[in-house]
Amino acid sequence: MPLDFTAIDFETANSSNASACSVGLVRVRGGEVVATEGWLIRPPFPHDQFFELNTRIHGIRAEDVVGAPTWSEQLGDLAGFCGSDVLVAHNAGFDMSVIRRACIVTGDDCPAYHYVCSLQVARRTYALDSYRLPSVAAEAGFTGFAHHDATADALACAHIMIDAASRHGVDDIRALAAAAKARVAHMTVPDGAADAPVAATPTQLSAV
């Protein structure tokens, strides 16, 4: 099977995983990038406050998203781009939690994606001092991108997986996960209330 997947990256307005304020998407077919897309998102209330720390990292401010589609308004476009692909993200647990939590807050049906974490793959593929996205992307030969721009980060993630597949000698996303001893996880929506804002952590905001 060909190396097909969609790489995804979110930026958030604050420490709540429901506060998506931008998304980047990159489609890979046969080990080649064939499409990129990205847009701003107006985070759902009451998770729409922009923290200074987050804005300092990604540069997005509350006034930038005033005219942007809400989570519910853009979810169809997101799902349409991803289709039935396996999703890939660097520190994928965070990005998948953004989809889950935003859908819980808004009451939207949450897509049940399968996904692979490029951070897990990178740890089994490269010997590096740091596995932050810029360091891993540089090892994969992708440099000079605008880190914390969601589309640029998704593109970096895609190039990491393409390079890792080459190094492992595989041409399928599931075969790559198996070769790198990474999980092909299935996104589920937990029972319970939507998440409340939590303390910002380096993993949420800057580790990738």
Structure, described:
With 208 residues, this protein is an alpha/beta fold. It contains eight helices and six strands; from the N terminus they run E-E-E-H-H-E-H-E-H-H-H-H-E-H. The protein has a single domain (5-190), classed as Nucleotidyltransferase, domain 5, CATH 3.30.420.10. The chain has helices spanning 52-58, 71-82, 92-106, 118-123, 133-139, 150-168, 173-179, 202-205, and strands at 5-12, 20-29, 32-40, 87-89, 114-117, 185-186. A six-stranded mixed β-sheet has the order 3-2-1-4-5-6, sandwiched between helices. The protein is globular, with a radius of gyration of 16 Å. Residues 196-207 have low confidence and may be disordered.
Low-pLDDT parts are: 196-207
- CATH homology group: Ribonuclease H-like superfamily/Ribonuclease H
Share of helix among residues? 25-40%
Question: Could you please say which CATH topology applies here?
Answer: Nucleotidyltransferase, domain 5
User: What class would the helix/strand composition place it in?
Assistant: alpha/beta
Residue-averaged pLDDT: 92
What is the H-and-E element order? EEEHHEHEHHHHEH
Question: What about the largest sheet?
Answer: 6 strands, mixed
- CATH secondary-structure class: Alpha Beta
Q: For the largest beta sheet, what order do the strands appear in spatially?
A: 3-2-1-4-5-6
Structural domain count = 1
Architecture in CATH? 2-Layer Sandwich
Number of helices: 8
Rg over alpha carbons: 16 Å
Number of strands: 6
Q: What general form does the structure show?
A: globular
β-sheet strand percentage: 15-25%
* Straight-line N-to-C gap: 29 Å
